[in-house]
Design brief:
- The chain starts with 32 loop residues before the first helix and ends in a 15-residue tail after the last helix.
- It has a two-stranded antiparallel sheet with strand order 1-2.
- A hairpin with a 2-residue loop joins strand 1 and strand 2.
- It has a domain of 133 residues: dinb family like domain (Four Helix Bundle (Hemerythrin (Met), subunit A), Up-down Bundle).
- The longest helix has 23 residues.
- The protein has 226 residues and is mostly helical.
Length: 226
């Protein structure tokens, strides 16, 4: 999974075809709406007493993941619109920066994110997110990957059910596959943990998580009460 402070990687070429079959010219677009809705459901289910609980993302507690989602939703919506953020660096993942109305604001921002990426022009041409320059097609896949995988982090850390749709999982996997497999270790940088083997009988989501360096079936020490 992309690291909390790394919304994208400059190595992504605008001329690369993603493993999911999309040409990065915007001719085959992905709808971020289902993933945004699934993550929003999890956000609304987080209790205040769970904000300090751990998640599978080592540097992030539940509150940090929430703040990261809040920031990335805004950053990648701006990327879709080819707007420059006046605030500099992208989403930081710091629970101390969570607004008081986060249960309402994050879903609103996620909805706006999905809507911004429904514009075909979002998937073409150069853009930037969190200070990282990348092409529109790659930025869209990064945003989708962030939603799917951090949505799982949040659900896992708060004991909630989470079932993103197959198309969203495939889109996220298309991005992560660019940095998976033999010979890609140096390309992963700090954006992903070391790739793991998927467990026997893994679901598509579990396969994606293993590609990002997460063990989808490992117990979570100190997990939040259900």
């Amino acid at each position: 999974m992309t690291a909390p402070d790394q919304p994208g990687r400059e190595e992504h070429s605008a001329h690369q075809q993603d493993p999911g079959g999309n040409e990065p010219d915007g001719t085959s677009l992905r709808d971020l709406g289902p993933a945004a809705a699934a993550v929003s459901d999890v956000v609304r289910g987080v209790r205040d007493d769970q904000l300090a609980a751990p998640t599978p993302c080592p540097r992030y507690a539940v509150g940090d993941v929430l703040q990261h989602l809040d920031g990335l939703a805004e950053a990648f919506a701006m990327a879709a619109r080819k707007e420059t953020s006046p605030d500099g660096p992208g989403p930081s993942g710091d629970a101390a920066l969570l607004p008081a109305d986060w249960r309402e604001r994050i879903p609103q921002r996620l909805t706006a994110l999905a809507e911004a990426w429904r514009d075909p022009s979002a998937w073409t041409g150069p853009t930037a997110a969190g200070g990282v320059e990348l092409d529109g097609a790659t930025a869209g896949l990064v945003a989708l990957d962030e939603l799917v995988v951090h949505g799982w982090d949040l659900a896992r850390g708060t004991g909630q059910d989470y079932a993103p749709d197959e198309a969203s999982i495939a889109g996220a996997r298309a991005f992560v596959a660019l940095f998976s497999g033999p010979g890609t270790e140096d390309m992963r940088g700090d954006a992903f943990g070391p790739e793991l083997a998927a467990p026997e009988g893994a679901t598509p989501l579990e396969e994606l998580l293993a590609m990002t360096g997460r063990d989808p079936r490992a117990p979570l020490p100190g997990a939040a009460p259900r």
